[in-house]
Amino acid sequence: MNYTSYNKAIELLQQVSSTEGFLASAQNISNYKRVWARDGVICGLAALASGDNELIETFKSTLETLAAHQHVNGTIPSNVMTNGHEVEVSYGGLAGRVDAVTWFVIGICQYAHYKNDLAFIAKHNSKIQKCLTLLEAWEFNNKHLVYVPLSGNWADEYITDGYVLYDQLLRIWALKSYNYFVNEDPLQAKIQYIIQQIEINFTPDAVGEKYHERAYNEANIEAYMPCSFSPSGYKTQFDAFANSLTLFLNIGSDDFQNKIVAYSSTLKDEMPLKLLPAFWPPIMEIDIDWNLLKNNCKYEFRNFPYEFHNGGSWSMVNGFYGLALLAKNKRDEAISVLEAINNANAIAHYSFYENFNSQTKEPNGVPFCAWSAAATVMLHQSINNNFKFLV
Questions:
Q1: How confident is the model over 239-253, as pLDDT tens digits?
Q2: pLDDT tens across 68-87, in order?
Q3: Is residue 391 part of a domain?
Q4: CATH code where residue 293 lies
Q5: CA distance 364 to 346
Q6: Residue 11 is assigned to a structural domain of this protein
Q7: Average pLDDT, the chain
Q8: How many domains does the structure of the chain reveal?
Q9: What is the spatial distance between Cα 229 and Cα 216, in angstroms, rounded to a whole number?
């Protein structure tokens, strides 16, 4: 095992630690020198896996910062910047961030479980309840799947919208984590309803009333769950993060999960970096979704084919893929993924780049990206020390 990569990752997490929580990058870029909900919680999960008390305290600070700035309607900040006495809170750019809510609940519960701190759950219980009520409202049709706007999650410049698989799975993880503490029958029933709707609408040959029968039939689902669907139909790209969560949370039949493992393993091995691309295949200029993709950026366009969300490879996403492989008892495969993550993080003297062109292997995005380091720490500790998250 590569302990140099692990130690470098821990050093970066220490560098991005602040009194308010984990910053997204050690690079002096204003938008990344903030406490982000999803980045902060993912770094926090790595902190728990590491067992480093100072990093775990930073995780607690991250959660307290997010909790302190929860909107009156229950929304969790996408990010918070504190600069002396000045506080700047964002709940999203072109659209609000649905996954900030679910990551927050996951973070509170994972921290409390690790520390065996029931008082931490009690302290934040009213805030968790607001989150859960908001997620119910975001169903709109009361049929158990959350409706997500374009730009509504981590893939904020990609084409997914509507019933986005990733967000449904995060909600399941959040509800299961919370129900570990409260053990409520209605909450357990809700979890099962959501799982049932995912299996009916995202897996092949599913029995049950579909949200969109005609679009489901046209999607021709075979080897993995498609990334999203909406009234306009299915987006059928492979979402590596979402399908990793599918395996991690054990959603779908064993046969179908085995198909996901087989598809993802073949795809990974075809990539020069030996890492999964975030979404596959990439959207090209001749494709019908190109206009939707190219206009979905607030500043500069980054989703060129094989880059960023559009087929780029992220260490962070592959960290969760490695956890998924471990959940399916694929330890050797998980070790190979960790080695590929470490090789990518080590590029340019351990610059921990945000993502990479999946064809040329050239780095993209922000260097010294905290959750790229988190991927190494989570997977390293899970492989070598059998660390387990609350699932």
A1: 999 999 999 999 999
A2: 999 999 999 999 997 767 89
A3: no
A4: 1.50.10.10
A5: 14
A6: yes
A7: 96
A8: 1
A9: 9
Label residue 94 by pLDDT band (50, 70, 90). confident
Strand partners, 311: 307
How many Cβ atoms from other residues are within 10 Å of residue 4's Cβ? 11
- 76: nearest Cα among 87, 88, 92, 93: 92
* 37 neighbors 100 (Cβ within 8 angstroms): yes
**Local confidence band at 335 (pLDDT 50, 70, 90 cut-offs):** very high
Counting DSSP H helices and E strands in the chain, the numbers are 15, 11
Residue 390 inside a domain? The answer is: no
Residue 103 and residue 110 in contact, taking contact as beta carbons nearer than 8 Å: no
In total, the chain counts a number of residues equal to 391
Quote the CA–CA distance of 228 and 235 in Å, as a whole number. Answer: 5
Query: Is 4 within 8 Å of 368 (Cβ atoms)?
Result: no
Q: Tell whether 389 is covered by a domain.
A: no
- Structural domain boundaries enclosing 53: 3-384
Residues 6+ apart with CB under 8 A from 131: 74, 76, 101, 102, 104, 105, 174
**Does the predicted model carry a pTM greater than 0.90?**
yes
